[in-house]
From TrEMBL:
Protein name: FAD-dependent monooxygenase
Entry annotated with the keyword Oxidoreductase: yes
Pfam families noted in UniProt: FAD_binding_3
The FAD-binding domain, residue ranges: 5-78, 281-314
Species of provenance: Pseudotabrizicola alkalilacus
C-alpha cells in the first residue's frame, strides 16, 4: 500500500531510506535542517553488507569509483608488536571513502528520482494526529500529516528518546592528500597504539568530489576532556608527539598546520529498546550509537533503511522492522562496548589483554574467520528472517 513518508535528516540513513522507499512506491518528502544538504565528517568504511544496500539503491558504482577498497586492518603497538590484523574476503573488501563522496553518490540517486526536499527545516516535534504524524519546524512551519515519520537526524535528533552515555574517549579527524613516496599500502587501514591512551591512524579514502588526487583520513584519539582544549593545541608539539609514536606517518602530518585542520569528535553509546513509536521510526544514530571502532556506523544506518522499507510491505510494519534488526544491532553494540576500551581508554589491563591474549589467538583459522565476519557486518544475518540482497558476494 502506498504511504506518505516524511524523512527527517538528509544524511546517509535518510538518503538511503528516501531512495528505497521511493522505489517501493511510497510518497517521500525529505526534511533537512541545512540550507543545502551537505555531509558532515571525514572518512568512513562501508562494509560489504552496507555496499549491498548501496548496490540496491544504484549508488554502488559511484561509491566504488570514488572510494578505495580496503582489504586489511592492521594495528601495531608503539614497540612494533602487531596486535591487530584482520583481513576481508578476497571477493568482498570494505570500501573506504570520504563522507562527501558517499553523500554525493546517495544524493544523486535521490535527485534522479525527483524526491521532494524541504531545506532549512529543523524539526522540533512530530505530534500524533489520528494515527498519523505532523511535523512542526523551529520556524513555525507545519507539514503533514504523514502516514510515517522516519527520524534519521542522528545524535542531534529532537525526536528520539534515546539517552546515550558519553564515552570517555573521542578523537580528532582530518583529511589530507595522499603523500608521494609513502610506504603505506593504499588498501590498508593502519593504526598505531600506545597502550590504549593514544591511538593514531591512517585511512586511505580514494577521491573527494571536486578535488584532484587521492586522500587519506588522519585520526588521533584522546580523552573527551582534552577535546575541549583542542582549539588551543600547539600543532608543532602535537606533530612531534604523533611522529614519535609513529615516525612513518610523518608525511601525512605535514599539511596539518593549525588545530582547525582537525575536527574534534565525541562519541556516545546507547540503543533504543524499541526503535519506533506509533507512526514514527528511528533509523541510524537516532536509534543506536556507538564508538566508530568497529567501523559500523554508516553500515548500520544503511541496514536500518533497508529493513524499514522491507517491513513497510508487511503486516505490523514497525514491529517487523524492529525484529529484523534487533539481534544484529544488539550484537554489534555489545561488541563495540567490549572492544573499544581495549583501544581507547585509560585502562592498563585491557591493552595487555589485547596484546597478549587476543592478538596471539587472532590468526587461528576459526578466530580469523570470525573477525572477518565481524568487520564485514555479517556475523549475524543483517535482516533477520529476510533474504539479504547480493548475499553471494559475501561468501568465501
Amino acid at each position: 500500500m502506498r504511504s506518505t513518508l516524511a524523512i527527517v535528516g538528509a544524511g546517509i540513513g535518510g538518503l538511503a531510506t528516501a531512495a528505497l522507499a521511493h522505489d517501493a512506491g511510497h510518497a517521500v518528502t525529505l526534511f533537512e535542517r541545512f540550507d543545502a544538504p551537505r555531509p558532515l565528517g571525514s572518512g568512513l568504511v562501508i562494509q560489504p553488507v552496507g555496499l549491498a544496500v548501496l548496490e540496491a539503491i544504484g549508488a554502488g558504482a559511484a561509491a566504488r569509483r570514488m572510494g578505495q577498497p580496503i582489504t586489511r586492518m592492521l594495528g601495531h603497538e608503539v614497540s612494533g608488536r602487531e596486535v591487530l590484523n584482520v583481513g576481508y574476503r578476497a571477493t568482498a573488501p570494505g570500501l573506504a571513502l570520504h563522507r562527501s563522496a558517499l553523500f554525493q553518490a546517495l544524493w544523486d540517486q535521490c535527485v534522479a528520482r525527483g524526491i521532494k526536499v524541504i531545506t532549512s527545516a529543523t524539526v522540533d516535534a512530530a505530534p500524533l494526529q489520528a494515527g498519523k504524524r505532523a511535523l512542526t519546524l523551529s520556524d513555525g512551519r507545519r507539514f503533514g500529516p504523514f502516514d510515517l515519520v522516519v527520524d534519521t537526524s542522528g545524535a542531534a535528533s529532537r525526536l528520539s528518546p534515546l539517552q546515550a552515555r558519553a564515552l570517555p574517549f573521542g578523537a580528532v579527524w582530518g583529511t589530507v592528500p595522499w603523500p608521494d613516496g609513502t610506504g603505506f599500502a593504499p588498501d590498508q587501514l593502519r593504526q598505531r597504539y600506545r597502550a590504549a591512551r593514544n591511538m593514531v591512524g591512517v585511512l586511505p579514502l580514494g577521491q573527494r568530489p571536486g578535488l584532484s588526487g587521492t586522500h587519506a583520513a588522519i585520526f588521533w584519539s584522546m580523552p573527551t576532556a582534552a577535546l575541549d582544549h583542542w582549539a588551543s593545541t600547539d600543532m608543532a608539539a602535537w606533530r612531534a608527539e604523533a611522529t614519535a609514536l609513529w615516525p612513518e606517518m610523518a608525511p601525512f602530518l605535514t599539511p596539518l598546520t593549525t588545530a582547525a585542520d582537525l575536527t574534534p569528535a565525541r562519541y556516545t553509546h546507547g540503543t533504543l529498546r524499541r526503535p519506533f513509536a506509533p507512526a514514527l521510526a528511528f533509523v541510524g544514530d537516532s536509534a543506536h550509537r556507538a564508538s566508530p571502532q568497529l567501523g559500523q556506523g554508516a553500515n548500520m544506518a544503511l541496514l536500518d533503511a533497508m529493513a524499514l522499507v522491507t517491513a513497510l510491505g508487511m503486516e505490523n510494519p514497525l514491529p517487523a522492522y524492529a525484529a529484523m534488526r534487533r539481534w544484529h544491532v544488539r550484537t554489534y553494540q555489545a561488541m563495540s562496548a567490549v572492544f573499544t576500551p581495549m583501544y581507547q581508554s585509560g585502562s592498563r589491563s585491557l591493552p595487555l589483554l589485547r596484546d597478549h591474549l587476543l592478538a596471539p589467538f587472532a590468526p587461528l583459522p576459526g578466530i580469523r574467520h570470525l573477525l572477518t565476519r565481524l568487520v564485514s557486518g555479517d556475523m549475524l544475518p543483517p535482516l533477520a528472517g529476510q533474504t539479504f540482497p547480493d548475499q553471494g558476494f559475501l561468501k568465501p
